[in-house]
Amino acid sequence: MNTIMTVAVTGATGFVGRYVVRELLRQGYAVKALARDRAKTRGILPEKARVVVGDVLNQADVDELLQGCQACINLVGIIREVRSPGNTQTFRSLHVKAPRLLVSRCEALGVTRFIEMSALGARDTGVSEYQRTKWEGEQAVRLSELEWTIFRPSLIHGPDGEFVKTAKGWVSGHEAPWVFIPYFTRTVEDKRVPLGPVSQVDPMIQPVAVQDVARAFVAALATPESIGEVYNLVGSEVLSWPRMLTQMRDQLPGGNPTLKPVGLPGEVGAIGAMIAGHLGMGAMLPFDAGMAKMGAEDSTAGLEKFKAHFGFTPAAFSEVFSTYASRV
Fold first, then answer.
1. Are residues 55 and 96 in the same domain?
2. 232-289 pLDDT, tens per residue?
């Protein structure tokens, strides 16, 4: 008789986490979901998911989560941190300390399969602390004795995602900057001649649908080829930021057709965010210095290995966005 695999999920109540939990249950897995607040799970997680209330940085809570599980999916992460006394929601605590603790407890408790959510652009030389700590968290997974898989998604989109909600405010003119739709550009120097001209270049992006992200994470559990592999996880359509934002403006309810995408130099945005932070006004901006720098980079990648191992191609942004835009 085949036994049902029980999967521990951290970050289960987040945007991606709730999709992963539903997909796991849909495919017949049992789920133990870690949540900081049981009340927050109501209406978000299906009743079939067993909820463990606790902190991903607390060993006793992690042990309770992992008890009786055969696999662990770590989805914990933040795109922006708020520094305050006693705050544990920092890049270092969630992107580095949490994976280290999860890995060590999985090894101790015999949980052999581990799937980690990283990010496209994660590297030790990253332009932001977000990227550098994501890379450091990857190393804890790579150096473990576990059967691991790491995914590096691009921008993840869906009807209840934070980015789409923010973009709705931009394209309607209801949120700052009110008179245009912002994105970041990067500075490129023409090096064909000495002291060549400098221009601003629009970054390219391959947004990936949250449903495809959930499908990939769950599929990895039944894909032996994915053990010990790192995968780019991007959509099949490459877009410039202006093109994507224009499409969102034209399809989201309340979009103002007179508003145009305007690129802001990422370096300038980063400096502005740092100054605002030093003045205690960083929370007033919808981005921090790291987000400005990352936003100026391309977020694209090849899908060859992913498609070969998983047998499907993540959908194009235009294809998926049009199915839910009217409901945002």
1. yes
2. 999 999 999 999 999 999 999 999 999 999 999 999 999 999 999 888 888 888 899 9
Q: What separation in angstroms does the CA of 7 have from each of 94, 216, 218, 227, 245?
A: 20, 15, 10, 16, 37
Distance of alpha carbon 181 from alpha carbon 178, whole angstroms: 8
Q: Are 54 and 105 in contact (CB under 8 A)?
A: no
CA neighbor of 105 nearest in space, from 135, 145, 150: 145
Report helix, strand or coil for 33: strand
CA distances from 235 to 153, 192, 239 (A): 9, 33, 10
Q: For residue 294, what is the enclosing H or E element?
A: helix 289-295
Residue ranges making up the domain that contains 68: 6-153
Kindly write down the DSSP assignment for every residue of 65-127, as one continuous string.
Answer: HHTT-SEEEE----SS----TT---SHIIIIIIHHHHHHHHHHHHT--EEEEE--TT--TT-S
**Across the chain, what does the average pLDDT equal?**
95
Answer yes or no: is 114 within a domain.
Answer: yes
- Measured CA to CA, the distance from residue 82 to residue 101 in angstroms comes to 22
Give the residue-averaged pLDDT of 39-65: 96
Q: Which helix (H) or strand (E) holds 291?
A: helix 289-295
Count structural domains, the chain.
2
- Closest to 218 (Cα-Cα) out of 1, 2, 16, 14: 16
CA angle 298, 291, 149 (to 5 degrees): 65
315: in domain? no
Take residue 228 and report the two structure tokens written for it: 């010990």
> What pLDDT is stored for residue 2 in this prediction?
60
Question: What is the arithmetic mean of pLDDT over 4-11?
Answer: 97
